[in-house]
Amino acid sequence: MEYIIIIAFIAVVILLFAGKYNRLVTLRNRGKNAWSQIDVRLQQRNDLIPNLVNTVKGYAKHESQTLERVIQARNQLMAAQSEDNVKEAAKAENHLQSTLKSLFALRESYPDLKANTNFLDLQEKLKGMEDKLASVRQYYSDSVTRYNTEIEKFPANLIASMFGFKPMELFEVENEEVRKAPKVEFD
Amino acid sequence: MDINQKLDMFDAVDSNKRKTWLLLFIFSAFVFMVGYAAGYLLGSGTFGLMIAGTILAVQLVILFTKGDELILRMNNARELPRDDTNYIYNLVESVSLAAGMSKPPKVYIIEDDSLNAFATGRKPEKSAIALTRGIINKLDREELEGVIAHEISHVVNYDILISTTAIMLVGIVSLLAGFLRRQLFWSSMRGGRRQSRGRGNNNSQAIIMLGSIVVIILAPLFAQILNFAISRKREYLADANGAILTRNPRALAGALRKISGDTEVFRSANEATENLYIAKPLKKDSEISRKQRRNQQSSLFSTHPPITDRIKRLESM
Description:
heterodimer; A: mainly alpha; de novo design (two linked rop proteins); 6 helices; B: mainly alpha; Zincin-like; 2 domains; 4-stranded mixed β-sheet; 11 helices
């Protein structure tokens, strides 16, 4: 009789354990999937940048320094992406954003550029890409936050340390202003 | 970031899938039972089983292949032509990306001046969102984004699976009930004739009894199906998840306020599908709609939670 109780108890513990473990796997995969979506969107935008730089070059030859910096930031980002280094990629992305801003600021000093349809097209395309990138980033940060919270909790933290579930990096730079999730209470 | 664990959309997915299977299982068992009993009383139980099986099989095939299309057609929705310049498509796409969908839902439009929206489909990859012309015209961009996020929450957590299933099942029940009623009618006519010729009427009495039993069983089943599909908690959950997706609870609250102030009658409203909508559609009959309004404040049986309460919750986020 006692054996049965002990075996039943062990079986229940193992089942609970397995459930938690599978949950962690699901959450981690969701985070990875979200990262690959960011990766794809970043790549799309990276592909657009040379085209943009060439268009601007035609009008603003003397701004080679700005153009150079855009290309450099893009290459940095691509390098970080190829290593799946989220932290570096976030830093590079942030840098790229600021260089792109200064690139678009050029249109004020070059009216011809501002009137160029190709440039306007690219600008519009880039804006669309940035919007989508923002959405994907939000999904990534939601997923990762969820995963990171889960592996800190008991008893998931035991399983996490046993099977090497490491916290994932957020695709964010410190001090960066991020749209905050609203606080939600639900009963 | 405070994303309450209970609110995780993906946690609702398993529960919704399980409930849908349970619903289908109980429902099939029930249909076979009724079919067998009716067949038995009419002469052949096996025949009854075959009829029930056929009806069930046809309906389930329709449900799993064309369920969403049927619902869209019942509501006179037509597909909005895919166009990247259309801001509605951009909104849908960006919200669906934030929800982690691999493919945005299709967008349908209902040519109606009232303010309403719904989502349908079996799974997120094959889902659709329908918006009325009125809601597109009268809401501003952020409010519309809130409504779209509410619908996408329904899509991502598989509420659409269970609601689409429930609507189709209710459809089968009414079909079956109609079939039984006709059978009962004819056999009672025959029984009547027989009776006048002096023969026994045990058989027709049994059929009438069966009929009442079916009605007795059907009523709560119906209620259960609807309850499964449109538990009020689902609406609150979709509101909250929508707010998380857009990071903008106020916009959705504003949209709900505009929707609740809407006096336009929903011409395309279809009785069977009204539970799908973000807010209960107003009926043609002004008497009914006035009553509906009054009931919106408090009622245990209304399918949608009171809109004022939903707004309050959103504004306190």
